[in-house]
Write a structure and sequence with these properties.
The chain is α/β, with parallel strands linked by helices and 378 residues long. It is built from nine helices and 14 strands. Strand 11, helix 2 and strand 12 form a beta-alpha-beta unit. The chain is globular. Transfers an acetyl group from acetyl-CoA to L-homoserine, forming acetyl-L-homoserine.
Length: 378
């Protein structure tokens, strides 16, 4: 593994580093050493003043704007990150870190426990969103980046962005929070529990000890992905795209094949997901999302998480997002107002539900570009 702390100026450079730690976790344990995988784009300024950290969502990874090594598909946010794009890699040095607990190179249940020489499995310590942020801060210390020009994230990435601003306010000049929330609702937790139970009910899960046989609980993980994917869409979007259309047949088969197009779509989403993600990582990260409650971390009052901060905030929601609906963003804006923090907020229209932040959205591009350019002028 490379431990070279210099940012390479080439576009889309993948790196991994093993840091000695220890990383103190919210659960009370210590993790040492800590593997962190990340990608860099653009060139770091001599005074390290142009660094932007991108935080990814639940099933995302560090390959934000470069081809994925497993699927070969373009990065998950190529619409937003790149030369001349809103997060402009000609102006900024962009860093995207694989979240702690994930399975694309950072320490997680699929990585090797140095004490046993075997994958951690379910013996990996329970983690939180704030633990992910602490690991990212440890990496930035290693890279010599004391302060970030901005932290940008959508969905779980937005939660990490909020946690960055609350945990390290002096290190974040600007924060862009898209389609996110300050805590999970009971409905969010319920959907995640369905997914976790699907994984653990798969006989191949075997208590999380499936790595040696290279035979993971693919069926359970696919069902978990299907259930979650429904929450990323909107009823209007599903109706427009699929309606009740059948799979090229004029009559119902009255069986259990994928008769409807929407069934086939969801099954494809589940099956393609298992090729790139680890079931145990899914258990750990969904649990971290469910534990997240920024107000509870600060005495039960959300405004106290941002008291005295000098960070500039931009919040964006989408009108058809029922996973993290607009009222969730408004509650964060109200808390920021109560704390006296500078904040702008916009609700955008999209038929695509929660996934809208990942899809083509000229309005979102304009908002992010304008906010970052305003930060440069300041």
């Amino acid at each position: 593994m490379s431990d070279d702390p210099r940012i390479d100026p080439r576009f889309g450079l993948s790196r991994s580093v093993t840091l000695p730690g220890p990383l103190r976790l919210d659960g009370g344990g210590l993790l040492s050493p800590v593997d962190i995988a990340y990608e860099t784009y653009g060139t770091l300024a001599p005074d390290a003043s142009n660094a932007i950290l991108i935080c990814h969502a639940l099933t995302g990874d560090q390959h934000v704007a470069s081809n994925h090594p497993v699927t070969g598909k373009p990065g998950w946010w190529t619409r937003m990150v790149g030369p001349g794009k809103p997060v402009d890699t000609d102006r900024f040095c962009v860093i995207c870190v694989n979240a702690l607990g994930s399975c694309l190179g950072s320490s997680g249940p699929a990585s090797v426990n140095p004490a046993t020489g075997r994958p951690w499995g379910m013996s990996f310590p329970v983690i939180t969103i704030r633990d992910m942020v602490r690991a990212q801060a440890m990496l930035l210390d290693h890279l010599g980046i004391a302060r970030l020009f901005a932290v940008v994230g959508g969905s779980m990435g937005g939660m990490q962005t909020l946690s960055w601003a609350a945990t390290y306010p002096d290190r974040v000049a600007s924060a862009v929070v898209i389609a996110s929330a300050a805590r999970h609702s009971a409905q969010n937790i319920a959907f995640h529990e369905v997914g976790r139970q699907a994984i653990m009910a798969d006989p191949k899960w075997r208590g999380g000890d499936y790595y040696a046989d290279n035979d993971p609980p693919a069926a359970g993980l696919a069902v978990a992905r299907m259930a979650a994917h429904i929450t990323y869409l909107s009823e209007a979007g599903l109706t427009e795209k699929f309606g009740r259309r059948l799979q090229g047949r004029d009559a119902k088969s009255f069986g259990f094949d994928a008769d409807f197009q929407v069934e086939s779509y969801l099954r494809h989403q589940g099956l393609s997901f298992v090729d790139r993600f680890d079931a145990n990582s899914y258990l750990y990260i969904t649990r971290a999302l469910d534990y997240f409650d920024l107000a509870e971390e600060h005495g039960g009052r959300l405004a106290d998480a941002f008291r005295g901060t000098a960070t500039r905030f931009c919040l964006v929601s989408f009108d058809t997002d029922w996973l993290y609906p607009t009222p969730e963003s408004r509650s964060i804006v109200h808390a920021l107002n109560a704390a006296g923090a500078p904040v702008s907020f916009v609700e955008l229209h999209s038929p695509f539900g929660h996934d809208a932040f990942l899809l083509e959205s000229p309005e979102l591009s304009r908002v992010v570009d304008g906010f970052l350019r305003a930060g440069e002028r300041r």
